[in-house]
């Protein structure tokens, strides 16, 4: 195959989220709320809501400025200060699409801990198997990655311009690797 990107279709996203919902239930973790990190965490959060039926709050974080240059620290684009009382003493399920450097997840965990939740669990569709820039604090005892992959560029379906082509590329990639989801 000409490109070495890792393609993920909507069907795969749904299957991964369903398996994560089953793992969460089996683990005994029963979140009160879901916090989705935008923009990649929005779709997985909405799908998991189907399985666990909890409200979703959205946060937006950016590591890029207007000039599209990477910054050393995140900027809050959207945050949930107005619902602080709804997080205090609650079990929070934090969701993003990928754990790459862990900078965004680590930042969000740190901010959410300020609201004194009972517990925060972290869910990601894909965890890149590589050294992380940030480690989770000891308060994070539950981490749910749906899949572990190498350090590849991931092509999610919500970034596709042609969804049929995107889905075919995922099928081709899986066939070339002899994998099935």
Q: Assign the CATH class.
A: Alpha Beta
**How many runs of DSSP E, i.e. beta strands?**
8
Strand arrangement across the biggest beta sheet: 4-3-2-5-6-7
Write down the secondary-structure element order: EHEHEEHEHEEEH
- Number of contiguous helices: 5
* Model regions low in confidence, pLDDT < 50 over at least 5 residues: none
Shape: globular
Binned, the helix content reads 25-40%
Largest sheet: 6 strands, mixed
Could you say what the CATH architecture is? Answer: 3-Layer(aba) Sandwich
Which whole number gives the mean pLDDT? Answer: 90
- What is the CATH topology classification name? Rossmann fold
Task: Lay out the secondary structure.
Layout: E1 6-7, H1 10-27, E2 33-38, H2 42-52, E3 56-64, E4 70-78, H3 84-87, E5 91-99, H4 103-113, E6 119-128, E7 142-149, E8 154-155, H5 163-177
Parallel strand pairs: 1-8, 2-3, 2-5, 5-6, 6-7
Antiparallel strand pairs: 3-4
